[in-house]
Each structure stands twice: as C-alpha cells, then as structure tokens.
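Module 6 notes. Inverse folding takes a fixed backbone as the condition and produces residue identities as the prediction. Think of it as a translation problem where the source language is geometry and the target language is the twenty amino acids. Below is one complete input and output pair. Work through it position by position during the lab.
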C-alpha cells in the first residue's frame, strides 16, 4: 500500500502534467476512497478539471489544444470589444453634441429677425 507522501507527490506531478495514464487512474482511485482531509483541495480541483474535460492524460491533449485556442479567441474578442466600446461612445457623444449645436444654430438663426425687431421697438 502506498503512503500519504507518495500520493501528495503524485498529485503535484498530476498538476504539472507529468503523470502517466496509469498513475492518474491510481490517483483518482485513491482520491475516491480516501477520507483524509489533506486531500480535499486536490479532490476538488481534480474533479472540477475532470468534469470540464481538461484531463491531462495523453488521449485528450489534442482536444484540450482546440479548447485553449477557442479560449484565447474568446479572450481576444472580449479585449477587442472593450477597446472599441469607448470609441463608439465617444463617437455617439460627438454626434449628439453636433446635432444639439445645429439645432441651437437653427433656433437662433430663426429668432434673429424677431430679436432685431424687438430691439428697434425698444429704441424708438
């Protein structure tokens, strides 16, 4: 029977992706049956990785490779959106200010004759 230190070292090797398929099976089997509280964090992380399909075994590395590129693509798209968003907001703000200025100019241009007439009446 292997001891606690062996499985701790094996789990470190697992997270460094240095274990064989047989060693991973042995580690999984040990974690399924152990009641030792020192392995609770390792169990949690390992089983989350397993459930997400991010195994370190040789057969699934090709699958993970595509997953990594897809994740990088999503991250790049998110960065691009975050970079473009302020530009769009700035452009919209500029357009709104331009429209407001045009409307004010139209308003004051239409009011000029009325103001001129009122000034003439005040002077007379």
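Target side of the pair, the amino acids:
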């Amino acid at each position: 029977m292997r001891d606690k230190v062996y499985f701790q070292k094996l789990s470190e090797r697992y997270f460094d992706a240095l274990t064989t398929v047989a060693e991973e099976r042995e580690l999984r089997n040990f974690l399924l049956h152990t009641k030792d509280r020192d392995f609770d964090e390792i169990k949690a992380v390992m089983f989350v990785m397993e459930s997400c399909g991010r195994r370190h075994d040789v057969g699934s590395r090709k699958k993970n490779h595509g997953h990594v590129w897809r994740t990088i693509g999503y991250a790049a798209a998110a960065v691009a959106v975050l970079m473009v968003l302020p530009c769009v907001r700035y452009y919209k703000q500029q357009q709104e200010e331009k429209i407001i200025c045009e409307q004010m100019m139209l308003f004051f241009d239409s009011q000029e004759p009325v103001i001129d007439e009122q000034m003439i009446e005040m002077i007379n």
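Reference fact for the lab report: The chain has a mean pLDDT of 77.
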